[in-house]
Amino acid sequence: MFGDISGMMSKLKEAQQEVEKTKTRLNSVLVDESSTDGKLKITLTANREIKAISIDDSLLSDAEELEDYLIITLNKAIEKATKINENEMANAAKTGMPNIPGMDMFK
Fold first, then answer.
1. Which residues pair with 55 in a beta bridge?
2. 39 secondary structure, DSSP code
3. Is 53 left (phi over 0), alpha (psi -120 to 50) or beta?
4. pLDDT digits (tens, 9 = 90+) for 41-78
5. Per-domain residue ranges for the chain?
6. Average per-residue pLDDT for the chain
7. Does CATH place domain 5-96 in 3.30.1310.10?
8. pTM above 0.85?
9. What mean pLDDT is predicted for residues 101-107?
10. What is the DSSP string of 48-60?
11. Are 93 and 11 contacting, i.e. CB atoms less than 8 angstroms apart?
12. Helix pair angle (5-26, 63-95), 10° resolution
């Protein structure tokens, strides 16, 4: 019915290995985001791990303003990283997917 089961299992294993390689590679893909005025800069990986935060001294005197900057800029950076992550992971997953009837959602 499904053809060569062992061939499909091999393809699934290849897809899983490709996903794992992609996860590892995404640790080295850096996403930079800055506040509109450049007073706050954030760098994170495409796996959404924060690598660096640079804060202008003028923000250090007002905790509430700094919190606002952090929330806005972190959310923008996470959104960018998530888009990259989702696209790359979807591509990796479909690379080795066997042709199983009804499973064409990955194609």
1. 40
2. S
3. beta
4. 999 999 999 999 999 999 999 999 999 999 999 999 99
5. 5-96
6. 86
7. yes
8. no
9. 52
10. --EEEEEE-GGGT
11. no
12. 150
User: Apex CA 87: angle with CA 81 and CA 88, to 5°?
Assistant: 90
- Pairwise CA distance, residues 81 & 44, whole Å: 8
Burial 84-98 (b: 16+ CB within 10 A, else e): bbeebbeebeeebbb
Indicate the pLDDT class of residue 16, thresholds 50, 70 and 90: confident
Q: What's the confidence (pLDDT) of residue 96?
A: 61
Residues in the chain: 107
Extract long-range pairs of 39-47: CB within 8 Å, 24+ residues apart.
39/69, 40/66, 40/69, 40/70, 40/73, 41/73, 42/73, 42/74, 42/77, 43/77, 44/77, 44/78, 44/81, 45/81, 46/81, 46/84, 46/85, 46/88, 47/23, 47/81, 47/85
In 3D space, the residue among 71, 16, 19, 84 whose CA is nearest the CA of residue 45 turns out to be 84
Per-residue tokens: 53: 């935060």
